[in-house]
Every structure is written in C-alpha cells, then in structure tokens.
Sequence to fold (135 residues):
Amino acid sequence: MMLQLTHIRLLVTNYTDCFFFYRDVLGFWIDWGDENSGYAELHTGDNLKLALFRKDFMAEAIPSAYLPSALECQNKMALIFAVDNVDAVYEKLKERNVVVVTQPLDRPAWGLRTAHFRDPDGNLIEIFSNLGTVN
Fold:
C-alpha cells in the first residue's frame, strides 16, 4: 500500500478572512471554491494542494463536535514556503499588515534564512531561503 499526500487542509474558524489572506495577501490561485463556499483548494504546484475548510463543517462530518474548538498550547503545525528572497517577501507581507512573529533571521544551524508570521486564524507560517542564496 502506497499513500500519496495530496492535500494539506487547514481547519479554520475564520474561513472568509483566511480565504482572502491566502488569495490576496499570499497570492495563491484558487483551484476550487470561493469566499462563501466554506472550502477552497489553493494551487501550490502540481502535486500538493493547500485547502481551507471551515472547522465547524469538519466537526459535522467527523464526530468531534464534543471536543473543544481550541486548546491553549504551542503551535501544532506550521506551513513552510520556500521563497527566493526572504527579506523582500517579508517587507511585502509587512506592508500588507500580516501578523509578524519573527523578522528575517539567519539560522546557520538550519542552513536557512527565515521569517515567521500568522494567518488570520493564527496558523504559523514560515518563509525561508537557503543560506548562501539571495537574501
């Protein structure tokens, strides 16, 4: 049996704001859905889709409505995006008023230059480029 990862689905509370954030701020094309559909697939390349899905819709589909909708905890996941120029993308996102978590920083132990921010639902996002490439 071979499993193939096809989607990363973010279960979000604020679907409309997240939809506009990923489409308008981050610039992803929408392969399916719109700001009112409660589900959307974003084009991230040929092999993997990033999907947004209203958390309450998923709770209806999976018997988990009895679970708390949010827990106080560390981040449970992060979306990681490769970029050509961390500093340029960081400045563009900052101009668009994204919630900045960390400014661009060289991380020699990782071999990367990174910056972090959050989407409207609080999901952690990292942008990176390899050290030694254009920063």
Remarks:
- The CA atoms of residues 73 and 117 lie 17 Å apart.
- Residues 15-25 form the longest helix (11 residues).
